[in-house]
Amino acid sequence: KKTMPPADSYASLAFGRGDAGFLDGMDLGKPVICAINGFALGGGLELALACDIRIAADTARFGFPEVRVGSIPGGGGTQRLPRTVGRSDAMLLLLTGDVIDSAEALRLGIVSRVVPAADLLREAQAVAGRIAANAPLAVRAVKHLVGYGEGLPVGTAVAAERLVWGVLRDTEDRIEGRLAFQEKRRPVFKGR
User: Fold this and answer.
1) What gap in Å lies between CA 176 and CA 157, rounded to an integer?
2) Which of 46, 161, 172, 176 is catalytic?
3) Residue 27: which residues within 8 A CB-CB, separation 6 or more?
4) Which H helix or E strand runs over 174?
5) Is 66 designated active site?
6) End-to-end CA distance of the chain
7) What proportions of the chain, in percent to the nearest 5, are helix, strand and coil?
8) What does pLDDT average to in each consecutive run of 10 residues of the chain (192 residues)?
9) What is the pLDDT of residues 71-116, one digit of tens each?
10) What is the mean pLDDT of the chain?
11) pLDDT of residue 19
12) Residue 27 CB: number of other CB atoms within 10 A?
């Protein structure tokens, strides 16, 4: 009901003040986990698709209903959804405006996991805890490489991966990880 055009034209927003959209700042060096409970429609789904890991409550609903009101997703939905689910499934959702449940979102790969609504936050925090227990430089490197390599030929992306592997090879954290494995203890990572 409150999505009438703003007072400023899009041109003045895009070229005047440099407003790039509501997802500014989502390109973080750290993993972003999205816990979806309720409706992730339009901008809500665009926000979720900008995250690295998506976990949904079994009661969650997903969709891009914009075409039903004469609009389109404007925060990356037409670009992120096909990269996530494939062109045909993305076109079906984007062109029909259909809303799907969490089971279908899991089948399509929109979410990584579906849990009972009562367990959603606990599950998202558990995943975050498992990630945070890992070597910080390695976690950031993986996130960077996945994003960087998505638009590259596989050979070029693998070459970047090998380069980053070499950069991390002699870090204190990698050495600590190897020692902890040998000594059958938990590693103590320092991000160095």
Assistant:
1) 27
2) 46
3) 147
4) helix 172-182
5) yes
6) 50
7) 55, 10, 35
8) 66 54 66 96 95 97 95 92 96 97 98 98 97 93 91 92 91 92 93 88
9) 999 889 999 999 999 999 999 999 999 999 999 999 999 999 999 9
10) 89
11) 46
12) 9
* Alpha-carbon gap, residue 165 to 167, rounded angstroms: 5
Q: Catalytic site residue 123? A: no
The letter for the amino acid at 130 is R
> For residues 96-107, b (16+ Cβ closer than 10 Å) or e, as one string?
eeebbbbebbbe
CA 69 to chain centre: 27
The dihedral formed by the CA atoms of 37, 41, 42 and 45, expressed in degrees to the nearest 10 = 40
Task: Copy the structure tokens of residue 25.
Answer: 């700042």
Helix (H, G, I), strand (E, B) or coil at 49: helix
For position 2, what pLDDT does the model report? 63
Active-site pick, 66, 104, 150, 183 = 66
Structure tokens at 13: 């927003």
Q: What is the pLDDT of residue 29?
A: 80
Cβ(158)–Cβ(164) under 8 Å?
no
